[in-house]
Amino acid sequence: MIKVLARIWIVLVALSLGGCGYNAIQAQDEQAKASWSEVVNQYQRRADLIPNLVNTVKGFAAQEKDVLLGVTNARARVGSVQMTPELANDPEALKKFQQAQGDMSSALSRLLVVTENYPQLKSDQNFRDLQAQLEGTENRITVARQRYIKAVQEYNITVRQFPAVLTAKMFGYKEKPNFTVENEAAIAKPPSVDFSAPAKGN
């Protein structure tokens, strides 16, 4: 009899948790974490391309020291901001991460603009391969970031809705910060170079 009552109690608890949004909160929290991990992975992929890109440009445009140093320093700042899914819940930590990635995007844009002045660099196969990899990575970053934004929005809606809001408060689930509109605009445009444009000095 006791075992039967215990099973009934477990079933009732499970049903009540499901009805109060507990399961939805868990699922959406995990989805947000997984989406964040993909964002970080794609940004890391971009960071891994930087040394080869800088070395290739340096081989043709060593005199562009300020631009090359800017990219190297931006990469160092990106590397110093370690972001776990848990830290992504901290608005200040997320803001620092966004700022570092925004600086990296700006530095890369300046570097790729400089390459327009070096026809030999633009025609170098290694540079072309790296540039193609960079553009592909930037596109993957955009997709990963959009998925994360959507995952966070869905999670935040759930933890604000009744009765899930009561469950969220009971178990300590809070709204997650998301990419800001200002920063999204700053880092959403992938660096690009139009190879069809005539280079200076041609």
Describe the structure.
This protein is mainly alpha-helical and 202 residues long. The chain has a single domain (26-187), classed as LemA-like domain (de novo design (two linked rop proteins)). Helix content is 76%, strand content 0%. α2 (22-60) packs antiparallel against α6. It is elongated, with a radius of gyration of 23 Å. The relative contact order is 0.16. Mean pLDDT is 83; it is low at 6-17 and 190-202.
Strand and helix layout:
Blueprint (H helix, E strand, L loop, with lengths): L1 H18 L2 H39 L4 H16 L10 H24 L4 H5 L1 H36 L3 H8 L9 H7 L15
Helix pairs in contact: 2-3, 2-6, 3-4
CATH-defined fold name:
de novo design (two linked rop proteins)
CATH architecture descriptor = Up-down Bundle
Structural class by sheet pairing and helices? mainly alpha
Query: Number of folding domains?
Result: 1
Order of helices and strands: HHHHHHHH
**Subunit organisation of the chains:** single chain
- Overall residue-averaged pLDDT value: 83
Total strands: 0
**How would you sum up the global shape?**
elongated
- CATH H-level superfamily: LemA-like domain
Low-confidence stretches: 6-17, 190-202
Rg, nearest Å: 23 Å
Question: DSSP strand (E) fraction?
Answer: under 5%
Q: In which range does the helix fraction lie?
A: over 70%
Number of helices: 8
First-residue to last-residue Cα separation: 91 Å
- Quick one: biggest sheet? none
CATH class categorisation: Mainly Alpha
